[in-house]
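Comment thread on ticket #2218

A.B. wrote:
> Attaching the input chain for the structure job we discussed in standup.
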Amino acid sequence: MRTTPEPGKRAYQSTEQRQSETIEAVVHLCAEQDPSSLTTARIAQKVGVSQGALFKHFPNKSSLWESVAGWVAGQLTTQVFSVADQYEQADKALEAMFLAHIGFIARHPGIPRLMLGELQKPGNQPAKRIIRQTLALYRQKIVSLLHRGIEQQHITPSIDTEAAAVLYIGAIQGLVVQAMVGGDIASIEQSAPRIFKLFSASFRETSHDPKE
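C.D. wrote:
> Ran it. Output below, let me know if you need it in another format.
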């Protein structure tokens, strides 16, 4: 992730480029420190601009956090949902989405801290609303895939799809928390296939060969 442009290039960057650079800097910094302690001065320093220049592109810290949350939501849609959409068979789509999500977090370890930090804040700020909406959309995606799997007879019809969606998301969150506790976020990519295998054992149709 590049956050410091080459000398002499900054003056020619567009507003969109500078906003994108700032968002990436925030995501990177959230991997290094508690997002709640992250100041605009530290962000500006990371990007290599003054605070005044930073506020030309983001009127206040709330608008910056809203843009960061929007970026996260967009990345989840393009990098995670799109992977699932490549598979017609629902159980394969669920697995692909699970692994893609874990890979996304491994590449951007600051995102879980950022999302959790926003969800813990009081009130209903724009960034918090975006994250909540994204999580709701994510849950709906899982439920939809589970219903498709039932229709395809790859997933048992007796499954509680809502509970399974909670378990699916919880498995990802649990992996991330354990990796953060251990200080080795990269390890989640090695653990993810085994965790999904345990999860998938709970929903496979008994007549379906799990090796397929």
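A.B. wrote:
> Thanks. Noting for the ticket: Residues 60-201 form a domain with the Tetracycline Repressor; domain 2 fold (CATH 1.10.357.10).
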